[in-house]
Design a protein that fits this description.
The complex is a heterodimer of chains A (114) and B (112).
Chain A (H helix, E strand, L loop, with lengths): L4 E3 L2 E4 L5 E6 L6 E7 L6 E7 L14 E5 L5 E5 L8 E8 L8 E2 L3 E5 L1
Parallel strand pairs in A: 2-10
Antiparallel strand pairs in A: 1-3, 3-7, 4-5, 4-8, 6-7, 8-9, 8-10
Chain B lengths: L3 E4 L2 E5 L4 E7 L4 E9 L6 E6 L5 E4 L2 E5 L3 E6 L8 E9 L8 E2 L3 E6 L1
Parallel strand pairs in B: 2-11
Antiparallel strand pairs in B: 1-3, 3-8, 4-5, 4-9, 6-7, 7-8, 9-10, 9-11
Classes of the chains: A mainly beta (114), B mainly beta (112).
Chain lengths: 114, 112
């Protein structure tokens, strides 16, 4: 596609429920990132996928957060047993790889946990 | 301690009034410094990447510069459509996490 796409654009859920967020990167981009943006805070790195290498999960805030990526395409971020503090915008970015440094962001998924 | 600090947090200018936004950073080795623009309800839009001290890049009314400790985003004769939050991010060298470290942003308002 022309850019990074994410779905859903908005998600409202109840505390304790699981949610799954989807990211479709730019075609041909081998690297994919997830970030979280909480109100009044800077973007926080969560996880990074590069090709078939093991993902860098160093930014995941707890074991309730997990992510998967199928090859070099779609990624899903799953939050289990959601808490109110998980309310944030979840942003996905992709990068070309092979020396290309710039990360291009999707529009984000706005998650509200009631 | 914050690795990336942006100032001011908010800035209100009149149309045509030039100014600069600051991004100071503390990393052991810089792989790249990135500027993004973010409009309300949207994802960050890439503006510039700077790699080494002394480097400058320009795009329309924007110019980004880099020193060993900070970067400036200069806005010349801004227009109302330049209103947005401007984000600065750094990527460290040395094999650490590949994710970017972002500042909290500068919220810029250009009044007509």
């Amino acid at each position: 596609g022309a850019g990074v796409s994410q779905s859903p654009s908005n998600k409202v859920t109840e505390k304790g429920k699981d949610v799954e967020l989807r990211c479709d990167p730019i075609s041909g981009h081998t690297a994919l990132y997830w970030y979280r943006q909480r109100l009044g805070q800077g973007l926080e790195f969560l996880i990074y996928f590069q090709g078939n290498s093991a993902p860098d999960k160093s930014g995941l805030p707890s074991d309730r957060f997990s992510a998967e990526r199928t090859g070099e395409s779609v990624s899903t971020l799953t939050i289990q047993r959601t808490q109110q503090e998980d309310s944030a915008v979840y942003l996905c970015a992709s990068r070309k790889g092979g020396g290309g440094e710039t990360q291009y962001f999707g529009p984000g998924t706005r998650l509200l946990v009631l | 301690e914050d690795q990336v600090t942006q100032s001011p947090e908010a800035l209100r200018l009149q149309e045509g009034e030039s100014s600069s936004l600051n991004c100071s950073y503390t990393v052991s080795g810089l792989r790249g410094l990135f500027w993004y623009r973010q409009d309300p309800g949207k994802g960050p839009e890439f503006l510039f990447t700077l790699y080494s001290a002394g480097e400058e890049k320009e795009k329309e009314r924007l110019k980004a510069t880099l020193t060993k400790k900070e970067s400036f985003l200069h806005i010349t004769a801004p227009k109302p459509e330049d209103s947005a939050t401007y984000l600065c991010a750094v990527q460290e060298s040395g094999g650490g996490a590949d994710g970017l470290t972002f500042g909290k942003g500068t919220h810029l308002i250009i009044q007509p």
